[in-house]
Structure formats: C-alpha cells, structure tokens
C-alpha cells in the first residue's frame, strides 16, 4: 500500500514494502515543491527563525533565568529578558544573534509566568458561577493576565463588576501573580472557545495532522494532531491506518492541564515530510514562536502566512458534556485574529523548516496552537525526517 499523494494537511505515508521502490520518485516530487510554499525565504524569515531557535534553547538551558523573547514591529530585531542578570553561560547563544537587546532584572521567569497562568485558570474556575468557559492569556509580553468568562449556552450569571473584584482580591491574597503583574477580568454571554474539528465521525477525516514523529528510545513512528481529534480510524482514505493508541500518547485530560496534542501510532512507514499547500516539507527544528513572529498555519480549510503571534500563556477550561467534566488545556500561543476554520484542528503551525505548533482552535477571537517543544517533551517524541 502506498499513500504517496496524501489528502490535505497530512504527512506522506508509505507501507514498509513500498518504501524502497517508491522513495526515489516520491522524494523527487517533494523536492520540486520545496520552494513553492507561501512563505518565501527572506531576510525577515531567516532572522526570525534564528531568533526563535536560539531563544528556545535559552529557555531550556536557563529555566530559572529566562523571562521573555519578543520580536519588534520591524520584524528583524527583538529583545530578550531575564529574571535578573544575564546568565554567564548564555553568551555563546546570544553572540549568534544580531539586532537584539537584553533586558535584565525583569523580576520573573517564563516558567513562573506559565505556572501563574495555570494557577489563575484553576482559581478563576471557582468564580465561574453560571459560566461554562474560562480563558486566561497574555497579550504579548504585557504584565497583565486577561481572564475571560464565557458561555457556550449563552447564559450569563452574576454581576461582572462584582466578579472582577472577587477574582482580583482572591488572586492577590493567594499570591498567585508574579511581582508587578495584574489581571483584567471580563465576562460575557458569548462563546469564547472553538475546537475546530469538523463533523467527520471518529476518523482523521474530521481533522488535520501535523508533523511526523518517532518515539524517543523506540522505533514507533506516528503523526501529531490535536488532543481532541481521534487517535484511530481512517487516514488519507485508508481504514485502520493506526495501531491502538500508544500508552501516554494523549496528554489532554479532564483531570489536569494538557496541551491539546497527541500522536497516532502509524502502521506504515513515514517519509518524514509534512504536506502543506500542494507540496511537502521536512521540518528539522522545533521552537517556540516568540511574540511578533510571522507565522504560517495549514489545515484542511486554511493556508495562511499573513499573521503574527500575539497571544501567549493561553489556558482555558470548558465543559465537555459527554465526559461530564471540565476540559483544561494549556499552554497555548496564537494570533490576535481568528484565521482558521473547522477541520483545521491538529494542523501544523510553522515557518520555513521550523515547526512551531499544533493547531488547537480559536480562543477569545484568535486562533491558537499548542507549542511544539512542549508537546515533544511531554510526549517523549522527536521530529522524524526519515
């Protein structure tokens, strides 16, 4: 069986028997389209890719020190913030970057902010009243957490001003916020959250898939997708294309925060490339997309490279009736605009050869994605390029 021409948004899959005989023709076809994507490699893209890869390495190497990474409005300069002084060991990475300034003594780390966002979600849930949705996020690198209460059913309960005061007083008393951070609380009877899987039954026909992966320490290959998408079923027109879910392959649960991601264990060989916009591409690096990053998203119904990352530290919870429980998701990042559609769930967020995330849905008017370094780390997998 050869699935050399996949449906939109899904990596090329080949059976083991066909891989050797088909690899030459398949890779010839793929290489033709390498530069045919919407994102033309240029000075902006190269600089941003280098910046995001380096700042992701800094965040991993110095978790107690690293605070922020922001790309300026000119798209080819930025700044990096640290909790106190710049770690001495950070200089080799910083020396690789141009047009970057350093801000020290910010008083917080990115890890602390992320923990605060998660704690804020749980604390805010205690004030939900008749609302069935809670969203927490930051607009860029501001020191204000936005807290939104919404209602999928359109029912609003309680006084908004009173709720805001209660939430703020509670958060201050419990010392959840990092130093000099504040909150802004709003509520409405609008639906704030959309997980964008179309009505396709229990198959990946209702979603998109992102990047091929390999399990660390094993031989298992799979495809990343959204956690709210199915883990088995039809893929690229082939029934039963996946093994039963591998233990620990789903990190979205109703008992704790999950990033809305999973990987599906493929029965077939993977080419190591992802189908996007009429071509395929091998993604060789995973990084966090800093605020201001020009980014692309691809899915069954979307192919867009025109927006920038504007939201970070996004966490949300919503009531899932069939599970009779609240579904908590985070951390996510995203755009200020809603640019995606149902059916795009699980698709890739990327730029050039850098993979940034897995599409989740829409939150508070913007499209959001699970950050890929977090997904790879928590799932114990790595990008697979064949």
Tell me what you see in this structure.
The chain is an alpha+beta fold and 386 residues long. The chain folds into two domains: 1-79 and 192-386, Trypsin-like serine proteases (Thrombin, subunit H, Beta Barrel); 108-190, Cation efflux protein, cytoplasmic domain (Alpha-Beta Plaits, 2-Layer Sandwich). Helix content is 20%, strand content 32%. It is built from six helices and 23 strands. It has helices at 16-32, 43-61, 91-94, 110-125, 160-173, 372-379; strands at 2-3, 13-14, 66-71, 78-82, 100-103, 133-139, 144-150, 182-187, 193-195, 212-215, 221-225, 262-265, 269-270, 274-276, 279-281, 285-286, 294-298, 303-320, 325-335, 348-351, 354-363, 366-371, 381-383. A six-stranded antiparallel beta barrel has the order 17-18-19-22-21-20. A four-stranded antiparallel sheet has the order 12-11-10-23. A three-stranded antiparallel sheet has the order 1-2-13. Strand 7, helix 5 and strand 8 form a beta-alpha-beta unit. The longest helix has 19 residues, at 43-61. It starts with a strand and ends with a strand.
């Amino acid at each position: 069986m050869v699935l050399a021409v996949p449906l939109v948004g899904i990596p090329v899959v080949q059976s083991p028997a066909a891989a050797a005989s088909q690899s030459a023709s398949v890779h010839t076809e793929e290489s033709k389209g390498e530069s045919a994507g919407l994102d033309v490699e240029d000075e902006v893209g190269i600089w941003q890719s280098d910046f995001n890869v380096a700042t992701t390495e800094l965040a991993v190497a110095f978790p107690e020190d690293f605070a922020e990474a922001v790309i300026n409005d000119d798209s080819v300069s930025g700044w990096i913030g640290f909790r106190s002084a710049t770690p001495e060991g950070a200089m080799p990475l910083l020396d690789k970057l141009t047009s970057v300034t350093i801000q020290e003594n910010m008083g917080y780390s990115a890890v602390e902010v992320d923990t605060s966002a998660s704690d804020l979600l749980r604390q805010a849930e205690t004030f939900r009243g008749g609302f069935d949705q809670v969203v927490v996020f930051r607009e860029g690198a501001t020191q204000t957490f936005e807290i939104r209460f919404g209602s999928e059913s359109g029912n609003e309960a309680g006084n908004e001003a009173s709720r805001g005061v209660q939430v703020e007083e509670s958060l201050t008393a419990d010392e959840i916020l990092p130093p000099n951070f504040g909150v802004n609380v709003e509520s409405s009877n609008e639906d704030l959250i959309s997980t964008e899987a179309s009505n396709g039954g229990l198959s990946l026909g209702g979603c998109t898939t992102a990047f091929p992966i390999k399990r660390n320490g094993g031989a298992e290959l799979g495809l990343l997708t959204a956690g709210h998408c199915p883990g088995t079923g039809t893929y690229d027109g082939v029934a039963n294309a996946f093994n039963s879910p591998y233990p620990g392959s789903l990190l979205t649960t109703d008992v704790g925060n999950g990033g809305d991601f999973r990987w599906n264990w493929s029965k077939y060989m993977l080419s190591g490339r992802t189908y996007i916009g009429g071509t395929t591409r091998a993604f060789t690096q995973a990084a966090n997309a800093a605020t201001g990053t020009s980014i692309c998203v691809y899915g069954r119904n979307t192919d867009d490279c025109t927006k920038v990352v504007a939201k970070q530290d996004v966490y949300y919870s919503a009531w899932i009736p069939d599970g009779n429980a609240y579904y908590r998701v985070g951390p996510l990042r995203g755009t200020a605009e809603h640019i995606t559609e149902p059916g795009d769930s699980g698709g890739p967020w990327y730029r050039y050869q850098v993979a940034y995330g897995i599409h989740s849905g829409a939150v508070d008017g913007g499209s959001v994605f699970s950050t890929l370094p977090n997904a790879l780390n928590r799932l114990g997998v790595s990008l697979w390029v064949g």
